[in-house]
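Researcher: Here's a chain I'd like modeled. Treat it as a single chain, no partners, no ligands.
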Amino acid sequence: MIVCVAAFLQLPTTFENLFDFFKDEHARVQWDVLSDGNPVHEIAHISTGTHPRNSISLVQPINQKENMLILQESSIDLLGANLIYAPVLVSAITSAMSGKDTRDTDVLPPGFIISSDGVDDRPNSSLLTVAFQIMVRPDTFADRLVTDSVATIHALISSTVQKIRVAVGFRFG
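Model: Modeled as a single isolated chain. Structure tokens:
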């Protein structure tokens, strides 16, 4: 079972500025719980599509105990932007790159959808949707586990939304 949750908020900046904020590896520590407060470094970058800021990249949290990378896809056009990312073990990336079977690799990406709020008197305002997913294994399914999972993902999205509000308010407010 996959538990999904989303939050929606309005922020005082253009969707382009917000997209650039989320893509900035130096700003990531301000909002990304996966980096655990550590700086990150982009170790691979593949441009996609026709827009120069559209890409798929591998991001590595610096000084992290786990052997994890962050796989990220980002795209922007005239209507809005999205940034989707997922923690992936280095062993899973290595397996995929060597052509091995990766069907047992769980990828549950959180991410952002960003658009202009479309209101004429607020041209420098964006709408942000934040979404997270976590998996609850069917073999361990129990009411208590579901309750704990919902509480965990609620805390995760609440913390992330609060961090984004503070960072964006400080940067663009």
